[in-house]
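Model: You mentioned two targets. I'll fold them one after the other.
Researcher: Yes, keep them separate.
Model: Target one:
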Amino acid sequence: MISIVICSRKEDVSAELKQNIAETVGCEYELIIIGNPENRYSIFSAYNEGVSRSKGEILCFMHEDVMFRSKDWGELMIRHFMEDDHIGIIGFAGSHFLPDTPMYWYSSPFISQKNLNNDHGIVEEHFHEGWFGSQSIVEVVAVDGFCFFTRRDLFSKVRFDDKTYSGFHLYDMDICMQAMAAGYKVCVCRDVLAEHSWSERMQFTKKGGDLFNHNLQIFAQVWQHLLPIWRGLDLPSEVFERVNGLYRAAAQERYAGFLHYTYKRLRKLFK
């Protein structure tokens, strides 16, 4: 059984989402809604509450603005975990590399991703499949939190760190680092298609942006002993060390424009 955990801005999720899950999951499941209209929970504490309520051997953590466009995705996810006991987390988008300076996963030049993005009704393919080769699943170091899956026994060794972080950001990257430190693999798959409603035009409030950046700084400090880190790419270590040097230089200059330019140029180079 899959336990699907959703932290909602309301007391419940939409009927449309419930119907979508019921019609596409293809296996036994339970739906655990952590209603959060009054912001009593951070995403970290909400997901810990979801873990404590769950009964499934596989857990799915997803946003309430996600719709599945594949049939029987639950069975496919169960199969992935059964085929490799070392896999702890599977998502739909993620990075193969994180530097030793504060950076969100999407600013990496080495990403694997296959999902749809719905920007105010305009649906686009966010497909970055060059690192998969002939495989349907590839190892990464971080996945995006809009939707990801874990095996239950992972939580005997990790938990969403609501003591160190607050708010609603970096829970995804931090839980991935915890999983790898515990000996599990983090992966991205491309045989399940999900649609996420998100727009680059969405702006943080000043408070939200400050908290996001604060959590990025905390993440880099907490995991400095393991960073930089890379997985799933057959490239010389010198490549990652050089790329890490570029991100370090950008961070020292505190020049966000240079950081943006760096990952855009590198992504084209390694496409």
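Model: Target two:
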Amino acid sequence: MTTTLKHIALTILTFLALTVDAQKQTIETRNDLKKYYDQFKVDGSFILYDQNNDKYIVYNQTQTKEQYTPSSIYKICNSLIGLETGIIKDENFVIKWDGVTRQNPKWNKDHDLKTAFKNSTVWYYQELARRVGGQQMKYWLNKVNYGNTDTSGGIDKFWLSGGLRITPEQEIDFLKQLYNNKLPFSQRTMDIVKKIMFFEQTPHYTISSKTGWGQQDNKEIGWYVGYIETKGNVYYFANCIQTSDSGYNDFPKARIDITNQILADLKLTTPENLKITHLTGDYYIFTTYKPINGSPFPSNGMYCVTNSGVIMFDTPWDTTQFQPLLDSITNRHHKKVVVCIATHFHDDRTAGLEYFKSKGIQTYSSKQTFDLCREHHEKQAAFYFTKDTTFIIGNHSFQTYYAGEGHTKDNIVVWCNDAKILYGGCLVKSTENHGLGNIADANLNAWKTTIKNVINKYPKPTYVIPGHFGWTSNKGLQHTLKLLKQQ
């Protein structure tokens, strides 16, 4: 066979192979997903890749091929490059805050890679990029083939207001390569980045993700990208939304909420009995549910991983989730819960105290809570404290504070000074709440003064964790005062 004939034969075989692969791969168009974008009054597109079945599910496919500024989803690639070049040693590498006060209070402190990624700290990644330098950055963007690889606009701005663009389809391909260790980085580098991408875990699925928010062509551009591991499979997703309304307050929330609704629609997530969400650093929020008026009602607790074990604030409300929570903590952190502190006597805070005692966990509450638990036949802690107390567990310390009556006569808060977290329990209402909830044991007259006492003692919390619903805003104390004024 001549060289020309061999070349023709090889070309035909290659074409046939590609044709077979294309036939295997399927694309399902879901125009019905538009309702979720209409709900938030935004335009957008959604693309999901089912790895085991080599299948795409797409809404607004034309837009998934259009290029957008990546803004903060570029932090995934930026982290990889920073680690691979040795600019950043690991996820604990700290860059000192420059002292410039910025719009997001979470940014105004020293950060390491994992907290900068979690809080989308722009200045950290700008400094990282400057240290990498333009030549190395361009080299790695070309090697990864990230989007259009355009670094024009400045080494510390090209992904924010410069020339870098990426399509949702390209982002999916990038995430696939990362998860499957196909990117041109060391295994160690990719493992660290996958670790800091962790966002949420339940007994049935784990989500790793990143948000982004930028401006392009007089529009707000919002991203939520990542992958969900569930049912022995991996599903990669990219949600890109746009609006011309620069003052639209629900725009940041819409990125995630639309994605969550679509994932639930696709039966990849379902209402869970237990959800664990990374807050910051060593801190995690766990959420369990009880049916109220036919719908699952969320209840939040928190735990912190110290070098001497895990300390937990409040217990699961759902009695079936005591052991699953302990198992999830052990499996993820390879440490056991050693202390649990209940913040008031209601069962959404205390239900697991006796179970935890039976597992060798030291359980605590205030003396008021201890007595009220006995009076109301709720589960009691093994130990109590009679005044505001500082607990030192391993490398972390926590301060309990009783500011007065409110949701109940015994409600306390916990202050975690290292991360500026105010764990408010049911004394504090989420900004998602439209009312005060259960006020059967409340002192409405004293509640306002109690909240003001907390504000005076801890005037600048970075995080405020309510007993129920979301905690994305740190204005829960002020929102609680607003709700009290409406009574």
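Researcher: Noted. Anything on target two?
Model: The chain has 16 helices and 21 strands.
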